[in-house]
Amino acid sequence: MIPTILGLDHVVIAVRDLDAAAAQWAALGFHLSPRGTHSEHMGSGNYTMMFGEDYLELLGVLAEKPHNAPLRGFLAKREGLERTAFTTTDAGAGVAALQARGIPATGPVHFGRPVPMPDGSMAEARFSVMHWPVTEAPAGLRIFACQHHTRHTVWVPELQAQPNGVTRIIRVLVASNFPNKAAEHLARLTESVVRLEDGIRLVPTGPGRADIGFAPRETIAALGGFDPEALPEEGGAALILGTTIPRPPAMANGCGLIFQEITP
After folding, report:
1. Which terminus of the chain, N or C, has fewer Cβ atoms within 10 Å?
2. Is the entire prediction scored with pTM above 0.90?
3. What is each CA distance from 244 to 28, 105, 112, 162, 263, in whole angstroms?
4. 3-state helix, strand, coil in the chain (%, to 5)
């Protein structure tokens, strides 16, 4: 991996109705953060579901802005797993490293959102993000990297205790009719490698962090017993989540969820 990238940070689930989506995920046993509103130029809001080193983010459009045009384009077609973020220790250095390799990365973009803390005080979560070009999206999955300046406002212990026992993201599954090509594409963008496991092309993102796997949607559907037609032919399709409490697979906002029991 690129030296400033530590591994998968979070997964973005694009939704059309933020509050309705939050209720759906809460019904699956997730403990969601209070609703957040991003900086004005972003025009978006979110809910997060925090784990150990990673998390899920429900992201929706609150106001049409140039920055969220790609998100609005995605939502015009479907809801679901729209992009993944990597943890970066230095967003600016990451942009420079990619540009030096001829990849026209952009950023860093700085933004924040207010966060109500458990003691009743208000804090600000601050981030800097770097983006790979929107045209460089393996099998339609957009990627970016996030530098957390205020981790204590995001990884709040009270928000990390999930009633359904989920503690981490094990794997992001991306549907593709050309999985080998898509996996090699991601590996090139992140300076990683590809390995084959049970018919899925896997690209590791960093030690102890989730892999990103590419396979035809029929293969992904079979893993969770999903209707293949419920998954995209190309794009983010499902997540394998590590949990201490066994649960059956589920679908939420166009994303398949497979719960894999792990030792606490």
Report:
1. C
2. yes
3. 14, 38, 32, 10, 6
4. 25, 40, 35
